[in-house]
Amino acid sequence: MKLDPSQTDGIEAWVGRTQTVEDDITAFPLNALAATLDTDDAPAATGTVVPPLWHWLYFLPVQRPQALRRDGHPHGGDFMPPIDLPRRVWAGSKFTWSAANPLRVGDHVTRTSRIVSITPKEGSSGKLVFVKIVHEFRNASGLALVNEHDAAFREAAKSEGRAADAVIAEVDAKWHRVLTPDSVLLFRYSALMFNSHRIHYDHPYATEDEGYPALLVQGPLISTLLMDLLRRNAPGASVRAMELKALRPSFVARPMELRGQRTGNDVRLWAADDEGRLTMRATAQVEDR
């Protein structure tokens, strides 16, 4: 499948592009997210290990208003390719954490990012372009984390578009939590991520412009909630790797089912919406400390 030339002109040239940025790991974002998620984590201080997936609190993009698209995302053109499709969503990620060298409060960290592929596709809801990026995080001791990230750009919502076929989630799991994400949770998480994507806080935009029934729960937030489920139920386990895939959206003020199961060092995690449909699945590899 090929998109219109105006939507893909020159994007192949962006494959291989790199970007290097630096940031300091500070305590406040960790303490703020712990409060947002209502965890019992001890207050973070110098030397505190960054919990898995909480690295998203750092290396935040800082754009002025004129640099943002109508949906609240950056226009692109500096590192991300300027793809002429109006909607962008988080599609999934893979992670590998260093057992000997975790990120800690007090670290000065360098993140090197590289675009490894740009793939146009035709989906059930229309045209898409997937952009895969590999982020490598290094502190003074070397490589601490590798994050492979998939972003999806989508065409405008069509009323006649066919929704993706639903998969009914399993209900047999040792770990289970029911959570109803409210607008305060979505707002606080977006604020911590400096995320101005309007589908997470602007109800008229989400429903009228993008055709969703309500505000969308952030994909990284669902991922973090699944990781929180693991941390609550296996507090002695250290996560070495994780893979996440988003399957369908979850919406504000609707119950979310979070489930998980550990077999040896392998963990399966998944989330379902209020109708029992699978919304995200994940696998993780853990080691007991």
Account of the protein in words:
By secondary structure, the protein is α+β, with helices and mostly antiparallel strands. About 15% of the residues lie in helices and about 35% in strands. It has 5 helices and 10 strands. The protein has helices spanning about 5-10, 25-35, 185-190, 205-210, 220-235; strands at about 20-25, 85-95, 110-125, 125-140, 140-155, 175-180, 235-245, 255-265, 265-270, 280-289. It has a 10-stranded antiparallel beta sheet, with helices on one face. β3 and β4 form a beta hairpin. α2 (about 25-35) packs antiparallel against α3. It is globular. The termini are far apart.
Instruction: Give the CATH topology.
Output: Thiol Ester Dehydrase, Chain A
Number of domains: 1
What is the C-level CATH assignment? Alpha Beta
Number of strands: 10
Oligomer: single chain
Strand line-up in the sheet with most strands: 1-3-4-5-2-7-10-9-8-6
> Taking Cα atoms only, what radius of gyration do you get, to the nearest Å?
19 Å
Residue ranges: pLDDT <50 for 5 or more in a row? 1-7
Shape: globular
Beta-strand content estimate: 35-45%
Could you tell me the mean pLDDT? Answer: 91
* Count of discrete alpha- or pi-helical segments spanning 4 or more residues: 5
Assigned CATH superfamily: Hotdog Thioesterase
> Termini separation (Å)?
48 Å
Class of secondary structure makeup? alpha+beta
Judging by the overall fold, what is the CATH architecture? Roll
Elements, N to C (H/E): HEHEEEEEHHHEEEE
Q: What share of the residues lie within helices?
A: 10-25%
Describe the sheet with the most strands: 10 strands, antiparallel
